[in-house]
DNA sequence: ATAAGTCTGTTGTATTTGCAACGATAGCGA
DNA sequence: TCGCTATCGTTGCAAATACAACAGACTTAT
């Protein structure tokens, strides 16, 4: 497990913690690791977990099958990313998605109770990890709230208005560059690309906005 | 501030902590309180905060104005509810919504740093509060993820399928009662009530589902 | 029992969307 | 330069949606 310490050093969870301290904390936190072959499930829908997980090798898919069997891929987890933090609390209830290894993968497990309850030996950086965990969760939370704000609008135009307003706020300017191309923006807002493209042009004709590729200006 | 201790005892943040311990922690956490008259802002969009807040009296609205001035009410905060936990971390960035007192209100402030970094005097229940905070955040997170899963579907039928599938999972049964009437469900899924009502009936005609008021059975 | 109010389903219409296809443009490497 | 690809706008059409209006079933207050 030691060989993954340099990698862990650069994760959000261990941000600001040195390699020596991480090494000490691995035993303090009683970290475990597991290997999953391609096609194996790391987590299954309905399962209850008590660990926060970090992928240290390979690639995972978060996916969901509905009652009638339609599958959709929610997100992709890459090396160094943390997952499970929203479902590790005791009363969390079951995980709602499957997590599948799409290639040979290694996952590290950290018991959430050992992270949250400060150890008696009081390793210096323990509280830093608790902070990091809190920060990661609250950041995740903010992004979800923001996205919900866009998606709760009824029409494509309203979604665009909400999104562009937010970007203008964020940049403190009515002129800004967004981090998406048209297809990505459409996926982000859950609308059809061509319909969105058309709506953008109509908004331009209505004198609400000017744009050039990913650069926008609100009027 | 002492008079609010019995109320705090029943909040999510202080769950499991006795009144005496809360009393001790108020000073340990250097809790502050503030009073807001009707129409006063508790938080304004663009502001940066470093406290977690609990409403101990009155009523607040979380609301949002877009670039063109359209206002929408996001949620209502009642007595005993916690807010601000998603924006209290140092690198959180600005709050994106306004929080307004819609009647005379009293809010208690808890410095997030003092909650997260365990105090040297090590009051016994401090780590319990950290746990509660984590649990509250992760629960909030799960609900947001779930709602996003419903809202990212394109059609009303797909949203209903996603929602009803989730409820069936949660109840471990294909038959269950939902906590919404038609209008509330439509608001929750961000669709038109009558269109949703029609779609539900078409799904029934297609043999996918049976229902009677708020009681559903998937087939 | 009556009246008022709530919840739900139904219908019709104008609007919006999803989808597929096509053309224009720009960037890039052979 | 030529072809290849990615991106973006545009169009036509079928499908889905929002919106308004209304009717029946049921609940509640008087």
Give the topology.
2 copies of one chain form a homodimer.
Chain A: H1 5-9, H2 19-28, E1 32-36, E2 41-43, E3 51-65, E4 71-77, E5 82-83, E6 98-111, H3 112-116, H4 126-151, H5 156-171, E7 175-177, H6 182-189, H7 193-205, E8 209-212, E9 215-218
Antiparallel strand pairs in A: 1-6, 2-6, 3-4, 3-5, 3-6, 7-9, 8-9
The structure holds a DNA duplex (30 and 30 nucleotides).
Summary keywords:
6-stranded antiparallel sheet, 3-stranded antiparallel sheet, 219 residues, 2 domains, DNA-binding, 38% helix, Arc Repressor Mutant, subunit A, Jelly Rolls, alpha+beta, 26% strand, homodimer, elongated
TL;DR?
Two copies of one chain form a homodimer. Chain A is α+β, with helices and mostly antiparallel strands.
Structure in words:
Two copies of one chain form a homodimer. Chain A is an alpha+beta fold and 219 residues long. Chain A is built from seven helices and nine strands; from the N terminus they run H-H-E-E-E-E-E-E-H-H-H-E-H-H-E-E. Chain A has helices at 5-9, 19-28, 112-116, 126-151, 156-171, 182-189, 193-205; strands spanning 32-36, 41-43, 51-65, 71-77, 82-83, 98-111, 175-177, 209-212, 215-218. In chain A, strands 1, 2, 3, 4, 5 and 6 form a six-stranded antiparallel β-sheet that branches. Chain A has a three-stranded antiparallel β-sheet with strand order 7-9-8. In chain A, strand 3 (51-65) and strand 4 form a beta hairpin. Chain A is elongated, with a radius of gyration of 21 Å. The model of chain A has no long low-confidence stretch (mean pLDDT 85). Chains A and B meet through helix 4 and helix 5 of A and helix 4 and helix 5 of B.
